[in-house]
Design a protein that fits this description.
Elements (H helix, E strand, L loop, with lengths): L19 H25 L4 E4 L6 H8 L3 E5 L6 H13 L3 E4 L2 H4 L13 E3 L16 H7 L7 E5 L8 H11 L7 E5 L7 H13 L6 E5 L7 H7 L2 E4 L9 H8 L4 E4 L4 H4 L6 E4 L4 H13 L1 H18 L2 H14 L1
Parallel strand pairs: 1-2, 2-3, 3-4, 5-6, 5-8, 6-7, 8-9, 9-10
Helix pairs in contact: 1-2, 5-8, 6-11, 9-12
């Protein structure tokens, strides 16, 4: 597109997962990284700064230092009280506009009376409905995984993060298997760098639960370009997140592909999905509830099909990428 891309290794992701030494490095490195970013902004004659993710704390400071307007794009539901308070303080004071992807994300910034800041705007995530559609063919993927065209295929799609609840998915699969021995379960996604042990533990859990050849782990075999085919191959998509999702884009991809979804009833999925219409919402960390939801859909193919069709209509009505782009462009113009 002719855009200049500048890589800044000085900008580190803010995370507590790597321990206190990493956090000390982050804060020691922070002032110099902000200064270099502000200098880059001036050199490029940037007019507007758009920071992606609450966990990126460089954008607001560089915007302040360089005197530029700043848009902060919040995508996360922050559950740690201290971190939530910090993000709310910064986003209320140091951005011209605050974008949230869902009401769940907006809840990070409500004051004690439940009021949102005046500069907050909601722009939901959106997808290309011409890429994700019911006419896509999932036959190649099923063939690669050795799954017959007639076998019910239930899948989780995402990184193998502890918060995603993949263990709940596997335990629910084990509960479903006796009633549906032909069913197959796919975990499409790989380990988070530094947390390979968790991914290995999930494979061990699948073996211990007796899933054997009924469950498959694809790792990072399938990337973004393969996602339309992945959803086409599935009969049901599951997102049993332990922690609230800020949005749950993978649900939208499945809905646009006319597939029913089952998701944990918290965070963004409660807004993206209509319980009983485009899918089923269940309590998080409850394998029995997830197994019951899957059983409901596996036993009633016509209902599952109707939910998938309703999901496609909802995606067309509210989550078309063209509409999302227009909303963002209008916000840029206003700023």
């Amino acid at each position: 597109l002719g855009c200049e891309v500048a890589f800044m290794p000085e900008m580190l992701p803010l995370t507590s997962r790597r321990g206190p030494r990493y956090l000390a490095r982050y804060f020691f490195n922070y002032p110099g990284a902000v200064w270099r970013l502000a200098r880059l902004i001036r050199r490029l004659e940037v007019d507007l700064i758009h920071t992606n993710s609450l966990h990126n704390l460089y954008g607001f400071a560089a915007a302040l230092l360089s005197g530029r307007p700043h848009i902060w794009h919040a995508r996360e539901v922050v559950t740690q009280p201290a971190l939530r308070a910090l993000h709310a303080f910064l986003a209320r004071r140091f951005c011209t506009r605050l974008i949230v992807t869902s009401e769940a994300v907006a809840s990070n910034f409500l004051d004690r009376k439940g009021a949102a800041p005046s500069h907050l705007r909601k722009i939901s995530d959106s997808i290309d409905l011409e890429r994700f559609h019911p006419g896509n063919d999932g036959g190649r993927l099923r063939a690669e995984l050795g799954i017959s065209p007639d076998a019910p295929l239930i899948g989780f799609v995402g990184r193998l993060d502890q918060g995603k609840g993949v263990d709940t998915f596997l335990r629910a699969a084990a509960l479903c298997l006796p009633a549906f021995p032909d069913a197959r379960f796919a975990v499409v996604g790989g380990a988070v760098p530094g947390h390979e042990a968790h991914a290995a533990g999930l494979r061990s859990l699948a073996g211990a639960l007796g899933l054997g050849g009924s469950a498959q782990f694809t790792g990072w075999r399938y990337g973004p370009d393969d996602m339309p085919a992945v959803h086409a191959a599935l009969d049901i998509l599951v997102l049993p997140s332990r922690r609230p999702e800020g949005f749950g884009l993978v649900l939208l991809e499945a809905m646009a592909s006319a597939k029913p979804v089952v998701a944990a009833r918290h965070g963004g999925p409660s807004e993206v999905c209509l319980d009983g219409e485009t899918g089923l919402l269940i309590a998080h960390e409850d394998p029995a509830a997830l197994a019951e939801a899957l059983t409901t859909l596996l036993e009633d193919a016509s209902r599952a099909r109707a939910m998938g069709q309703a999901g496609r209509r909802r995606a067309e009505r509210f989550y078309d990428r063209a509409s999302g782009q227009k909303a963002l462009e209008a916000l840029y113009a206003a700023v």
